Amino acid sequence: MTVINAIGRRKAAVARVYVSEGTGKITINKRDLSNYFPSTILQFVVKQPLSVLGATEKYDIHVNLNGGGYKGQAEALRLAIARALVKINADDKSALRKEGFMTRDPRVVERKKPGQPKARKRFQFSKR
User: Where exactly are the structural domains of the chain?
Assistant: First the structure.
């Protein structure tokens, strides 16, 4: 039984995934999926690549997740799982790409500029 690893990122979140043959158990930072992501929507997001391939009960997934917020973490985990599934079977790549699970979302927070309160917002202009 081999362990396949992959990494997924989104915003500031980083998900390191270890996939092995099993019963469909997903453990995130030593906690169960439903315990880590109480929202059913985020649980659905995490399981999307598995459900597209019909492999929900086929693999055990162990995850190290850190950084970002809960939505960014869920999407980073989705990308990592999709990448791991492609490492297991390269034929699945087209199906996952069609659903958009193979693309890393490049949008990140823009940095704050000096002399401004935020990245784009300016201080109020005073003529006098």
Answer: 4-99
Cα-based distances in Å from 104 to 22, 23, 89, 100: 27, 28, 20, 9
CATH of 4-99, one of 3.90.1180.10, 3.40.50.360, 3.30.230.10, 3.40.50.880: 3.30.230.10
pTM, two decimal places: 0.90
Q: What is the pLDDT of residues 57-108, one digit of tens each?
A: 899 999 999 999 999 999 999 999 999 999 999 998 999 999 999 999 999 9
Helix, strand, coil percentages (3-state) for the chain, rounded to 5, are: 35, 25, 40
| Neighbouring-strand partners of residue 64 | 16
